[in-house]
Amino acid sequence: MPNCLPGIRLDVTSAKYATINASVWYLLIRARHTSMTTCWYLYLIRTHGGALYTGVTTDVPRRLEQHRQGRGAKALRGKGPLTLAFHCPAGDHSNALRWEYRIKQLTRIQKEQLVAHQPPSLEDLWPSMLPGDVVHRG
Q1: Least enclosed by CB within 10 Å: which of 18, 58, 59, 131?
Q2: Cα gap 59→18, rounded to integer Å
Q3: From first to last of its 138 residues, what are the pLDDT tens digits of the chain?
Q4: Which residues contact 88 (CB under 8 A, 6 or more apart)?
Q5: How far apart are the C-alpha atoms of 42 and 72, rounded to whole Å?
Q6: Counting Cβ atoms within 10 Å, is residue 16 exposed (0-12), middle (13-18) or buried (19+)?
């Protein structure tokens, strides 16, 4: 399962880090705080016509409501009612975008299998389909 809470491990007693200036420490602490508080999710929304839309967000209920109010993706405007078909953690923003791309490359049948199985993580369904792997349409 993608790690939403990657830690930055620093040995502050090491002489190696003794010369890091305050601004670098600030950036490291801020990066750690951001990565610890921001987990991205991949989601699939089903339109009234049965189409599946794939996206990523940090807040699935908020994003679904935005789509329903017409403030989300233009592709979903006028396609309601919209229902959440699937969502799961996708790690950090970079991994989430990679997963989104991979899922968008799947056939409709493969996406329907994903929705039907509702795995708690993407790796549970496709252990070999990690971000960076090549996905071939079948």
Answers
A1: 18
A2: 38
A3: 444 534 434 444 444 444 444 555 455 555 554 445 589 999 999 999 999 999 999 999 999 999 999 888 888 888 879 999 999 999 899 999 999 999 999 999 999 988 998 888 777 766 545 445 544 444
A4: 41, 42, 119, 120, 121, 122
A5: 15
A6: exposed
